[in-house]
Amino acid sequence: MCCVLLSLISMEIAVPEMTIRTPPPGSASCSDLFQLLLIQQSREICCQTGFTDLIGCLAPRLWQAGTMAASKSKNQSSLALHKVIMVGSGGVGKSALTLQFMYDEFVEDYEPTKADSYRKKVVLDGEEVQIDILDTAGQEDYAAIRDNYFRSGEGFLLVFSITEHESFTATAEFREQILRVKAEEDKIPLLVVGNKSDLEERRQVPVEEARSKAEEWGVQYVETSAKTRANVDKVFFDLMREIRAKKMSENKDKNGKKSGKNKKSFKERCCLL
Ligand SMILES: Nc1nc2c(ncn2[C@@H]2O[C@H](COP(=O)(O)OP(=O)(O)OP(=O)(O)O)[C@@H](O)[C@H]2O)c(=O)[nH]1
Ligand SMILES: [Mg+2]
């Protein structure tokens, strides 16, 4: 069974609306692969029954299911899992950044994304963790399914291209959508990323303009180049740190409440003589 599954490790499973790229050899476990096969099977059912629209709706759920399964195996191997979503207009370099981070390669060709999902084990401040990256479509045709994607994310890289002012203006709308979808959450881990910093001669967005917007939103602004790899690791690792800090403070709150409750019930059990 394992041999058959291992032969699938570097295979790319492509479907009309979503691609799941398996981790490079050595980093995929059997349970990861089993999940991928399950996901693939569900999608095949959708394709065969002609419900291709369903895939758009199911993709984020399937991603969630996949990451939930990873959380389970995470518990077994006690690995934390951080779920990151790439957001921004079409052509700003979301896929290029993701592929550079995942595989240390720069893709020159532009192929608009529908939705791609990636998983990698990394060492974050000395601790081995897993990162799940959902690379979403910037193209407007897919705007309707963004809500579903955003709901399942724990942190966001809000990407624009420094060579296209319109893509910078669009970040405000993307941010609004994230805040609306995650309205019940306090502080959402998010970084504003100005990509294509290697194309300085074509810059349309001044650093100061982007920085002051990020300050207004209370988030970090970082310029990257998927081509030269400048700051690529930084944005993913800084975001994971923010996600981890949020989870820790939420756990602290929960535990605080629990012990508060215990104190009350202890008091309630006492009576004055
Ligand atoms: N010079 C330079 N080109 C880049 C950089 N990042 C991306 N590109 C190029 O810009 C084009 C679009 O990049 P993608 O990563 O496909 O853009 P995207 O944001 O994923 O686009 P959608 O999938 O449509 O949302 C490609 O031709 C890339 O090679 C960069 O940092 N520097
Ligand atoms: Mg893309």
From TrEMBL:
The lineage of its organism: Eukaryota, Metazoa, Chordata, Craniata, Vertebrata. One of its GO terms (molecular function) is ATPase binding. GO terms for cellular component: midbody; plasma membrane. Belongs to the small GTPase superfamily. Ras family. SUPFAM superfamilies: P-loop containing nucleoside triphosphate hydrolases (SSF52540). It is found in: Cell membrane; Midbody. Keywords: Cell membrane, GTP-binding, Hydrolase, Lipoprotein, Membrane, Methylation, Nucleotide-binding, Prenylation, Signal. This is small monomeric GTPase. Residues 1-16 form the signal peptide. Pfam families: Ras (PF00071). InterPro entries: P-loop_NTPase, Small_GTP-bd, Small_GTPase, Small_GTPase_Ras-type. It is a lipid-anchor. It comes from Taeniopygia guttata. Its main location: membrane. PANTHER family: RAS, DI-RAS, AND RHEB FAMILY MEMBERS OF SMALL GTPASE SUPERFAMILY. Transmembrane segments: none annotated. It comes from the Eukaryota. Residues 248-273 are annotated as: Disordered. NCBIfam families: small_GTP. Its EC number is 3.6.5.2. GO terms for biological process: positive regulation of autophagosome assembly; positive regulation of epidermal growth factor receptor signaling pathway; positive regulation of innate immune response; receptor internalization; signal transduction.
